Amino acid sequence: MTTKKLIGKVTPEERNEIQTLFERRNGLNELANILTSDNEELYEKLVKDLGDTGIKFQNWWDRMAEKYQWESAENSSWEINFDTCEIYLVV
């Protein structure tokens, strides 16, 4: 059973930054599911972009966690509600 605990909030600007990365990552993942390695140049660009986006995504969480001193726990993750800018610890 998973539980969610409200642990903080980010600004709308910070929310917009992670939402853009979230949507980009999801779009790239969908593209990866339909793209074959036949087009090697496009495939390599996709792999690089996925990697870069994943790093930016993780860096955002790391930066915000340090800035706001969010609670964390083993085997847990953080989640954002894009509508309210609220951050939850999911255990």
Count of discrete domains: 1
What do the pLDDT scores average to?
95
Strand content: 15-25%
Given the structure, what is the number of helices? 2
Supply Rg: 16 Å
Kindly report the spatial arrangement of strands forming the biggest sheet. 1-3-2
State the helical fraction: 55-70%
Q: What structural category do the secondary elements indicate?
A: alpha+beta
How far is the first residue's CA from the last residue's CA?
8 Å
Report the uncertain regions: none
Number of extended strands: 3
**Global shape:** elongated
Question: Strand-and-helix sequence, N→C?
Answer: EHHEE
In this structure, how is the largest beta sheet organized?
3 strands, antiparallel
Model description:
The protein is of the alpha+beta class and 91 residues long. It has one domain (4-90). The chain has 2 helices and 3 strands; from the N terminus they run E-H-H-E-E. It has helices at 12-34, 40-68; strands spanning 4-9, 77-81, 86-90. It is elongated, with a radius of gyration of 16 Å. The chain starts with a strand and ends with a strand. The mean pLDDT is 95.
